[in-house]
């Protein structure tokens, strides 16, 4: 046995397993199992639909009772019925953008190193370590950010260590394991023949990675980045601890990352406990949930389209 | 074996994952044991007591001391903020709600709509201390100066006699009774017509600990906290009503005699007039034994009525 892989190598048709002829009882059992799988599959869709239904039902008054002008105002002070979502949206976008800028280059290069360059023994050490990173609860990372990272940021010259940048750093480390493991899978899925071919026509290892392997794995890499962003924008606890929670719109410029911000998720988490059910504040918090949902939905469908374009290209042989 | 033929996680990683998972399970078992213990007592006759973070240490101390006198009565105390406690009282999930502010009219109406008549009990007095890092050279402020600082009209310490450094504003979250009290008495200077609110750059901390630990490491920060929670790592500012009035340092004495401008009542609310164990407990709190604990924790005891 030269190949112990449980997966068949790509581009090699495996004959379908022979199916024994079935009668009576076993046929009946098979029907039941098929039904069960159908139910579990459908239930996921039903649950998603229900979540969306309740989100809209609770959050809809936000968009009906408050004028759009106020909704996109620059102040958020709910106990005086000032519901401007703009600072919260800006806060979430700043923190997420910073995290992506830090995590994507780090994650992709780590994955390339692990998948293409690192010798076997290094990979065996590094991969479990990365998975340990994935297992750290977000609250622990948040605590670390609060105790260790914030003073460092403050010493760098920020007025306070609790800034959007602190949140970005923590979130980047939270998104890294996702980005690394999914993009490594994508690199792994590129057939070995591609690399052999590139090397055979005289390409260096770098040329083969940059010109052949990465383009071939592009759709998987896009998914990795998008899932990383998804993890980042929805993260709550850690962000709440390190971003200072000031519903403030920082002035445009390089200093904007070094000011405290308040994200949408932190706002929901911090204020949900106090609101009376059915009040306007309550539905606005659900309204924030809807906005958050729409943003993640937008990112996901953008990712889907990018990946779709990719696979179409590949099918047409444009690669 | 081809280079790309290695699939699946290496064994060491599976083992690590298992180890982590079992650790996680251990941890969750422990917390479960504790909570189930609490609820099993709760089935019998635990008084549920929830609300203000300002009051939580005091409420815990009362509950503990009362357990020594009346071992058959158990009291479960949780924090979360005055708004949280009052919301729980309105929803009927607690027996006593702790609040560092009086209930708002809307809250009383909501409770009545739910068939609950909230009854107010004053249990202690708290002096709200305005605190800065001990390295900060500023020792005293007037209330109008403080209002200007918290509304963002004053943004640099040098404008109030300190170093040339930006002021970092710290506050509790909006569900905190202390936040509402500070808004009414300091930011709006007690004028209910005044529409001023906290400056947008105010950092809203989820807990008192958040404020004090940021203050300890940041000499530019200013915050506020109940007198009972201030330690030697923070410096209390002397406050004056205006520039003509004397500056008063917060203490149990100045809180009790009314010279310190930011002293307030702390409340417990019950659903209807309390009866049985809850009535006994509240009477004990307001009595000499309960009030002795109040001064021990740095709050101001109620004067003899």
Biggest sheet of chain B, in brief?
9 strands, mixed
Structural class of chain A: mainly alpha
Name the helix and strand elements of chain A from N-terminus to C-terminus, one letter apiece: HHEEHHHHHHHHHH
- The outline of chain A comes out as globular
CATH architecture of the largest domain in chain B: 3-Layer(aba) Sandwich
Give the fraction of residues assigned to helices of chain B.
Answer: 40-55%
Number of helices of chain B: 10
> Residue share in helices of chain A?
over 70%
Strand fraction band of chain A? under 5%
How many distinct beta strands of chain B? 11
Largest sheet of chain A: 2 strands, antiparallel
Low-confidence segments of chain B: 1-43
Largest beta sheet: strand ordering of chain A: 1-2
* Rounded mean pLDDT score of chain B: 83
Name of the top-level CATH class of the largest domain in chain B: Alpha Beta
Q: State the order of secondary-structure elements of chain B, H for helix, E for strand.
A: HEHEHEHEEHEHEHEEEHEHH
Q: State the CATH superfamily name of the largest domain in chain B.
A: Periplasmic binding protein-like II
């Amino acid at each position: 046995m030269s190949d112990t892989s449980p997966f068949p190598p790509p581009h090699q048709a495996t004959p379908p397993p022979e199916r024994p002829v079935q009668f009576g009882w076993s046929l009946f059992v098979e029907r039941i199992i098929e039904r069960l799988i159908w139910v579990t599959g459908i239930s996921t869709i039903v649950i998603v639909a229900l979540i969306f239904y309740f989100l809209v039902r609770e959050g809809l008054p936000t968009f009906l009772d408050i004028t759009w002008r106020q909704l996109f105002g620059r102040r958020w002070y709910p106990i005086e019925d000032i519901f401007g979502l703009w600072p919260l949206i800006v806060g979430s976008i700043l923190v997420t953008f910073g995290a992506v800028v830090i995590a994507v280059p780090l994650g992709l290069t780590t994955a390339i190193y692990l998948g293409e360059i690192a010798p076997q023994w290094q990979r065996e050490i590094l991969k479990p370590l990365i998975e340990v990173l994935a297992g750290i609860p977000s609250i622990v990372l948040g605590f670390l950010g609060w105790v260790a990272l914030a003073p460092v940021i403050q010493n760098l010259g920020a007025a306070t260590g609790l800034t959007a940048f602190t949140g970005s750093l923590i979130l980047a480390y939270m998104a890294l394991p996702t980005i690394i493991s999914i993009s490594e899978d994508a690199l792994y899925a590129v057939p070995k023949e591609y690399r052999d071919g590139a090397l055979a026509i005289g390409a260096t290892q770098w040329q083969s990675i940059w010109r052949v392997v990465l383009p071939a794995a592009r759709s998987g890499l896009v998914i990795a980045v998008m899932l990383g962003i998804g993890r980042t924008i929805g993260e709550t606890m850690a962000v709440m601890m390190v971003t200072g929670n000031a519903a403030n719109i920082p002035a445009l410029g390089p200093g904007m990352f070094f000011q405290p911000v308040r994200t949408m998720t932190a706002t929901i988490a911090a204020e949900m406990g106090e609101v009376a059910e059915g009040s306007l504040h309550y539905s606005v918090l659900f309204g924030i949930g809807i906005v958050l949902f729409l943003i993640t939905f937008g990112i996901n469908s953008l990712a889907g389209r990018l990946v779709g374009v990719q696979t179409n290209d590949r099918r047409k042989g444009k690669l | 074996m081809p280079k790309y033929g290695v699939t699946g996680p290496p064994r060491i990683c599976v083992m690590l994952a298992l180890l982590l998972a079992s650790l996680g399970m251990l941890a969750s078992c422990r917390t479960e044991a504790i909570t189930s213990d609490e609820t099993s007592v709760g089935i019998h006759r635990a008084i549920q007591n929830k609300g203000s973070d300002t009051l939580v240490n005091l409420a815990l101390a009362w509950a503990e001391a009362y357990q020594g006198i009346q071992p058959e009565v158990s009291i479960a105390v949780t924090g979360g903020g005055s708004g949280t406690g009052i919301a729980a009282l309105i929803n009927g999930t607690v027996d006593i709600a702790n609040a560092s502010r009086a209930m708002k009219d809307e809250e009383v109406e909501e409770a009545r709509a739910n068939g609950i008549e909230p009854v107010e009990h004053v249990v202690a007095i708290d002096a709200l201390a305005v605190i800065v890092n001990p390295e900060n050279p500023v020792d005293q402020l007037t209330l109008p100066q403080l209002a200007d600082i918290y509304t963002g009209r004053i943004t640099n310490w040098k404008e109030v006699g300190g170093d040339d450094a930006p002021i970092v504003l710290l506050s509790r979250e909006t569900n905190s009774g202390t936040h509402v009290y500070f808004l009414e008495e300091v930011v709006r200077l007690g004028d209910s017509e005044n529409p001023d609110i906290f400056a947008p750059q105010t950092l809203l901390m989820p807990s008192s600990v958040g404020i004090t630990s940021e203050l300890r490491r940041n000499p530019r920060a200013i915050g506020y906290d109940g007198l009972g929670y201030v330690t030697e790592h923070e410096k209390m500012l002397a406050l004056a009503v205006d520039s003509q009035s004397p500056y008063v340092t917060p203490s149990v004495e100045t809180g009790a005699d009314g010279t310190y401008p930011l002293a307030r009542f702390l409340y417990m609310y019950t659903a209807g007039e309390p009866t049985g164990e809850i009535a006994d407990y509240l009477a004990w709190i307001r009595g000499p034994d309960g009030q002795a604990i109040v001064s021990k924790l740095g709050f101001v005891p109620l004067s003899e009525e």
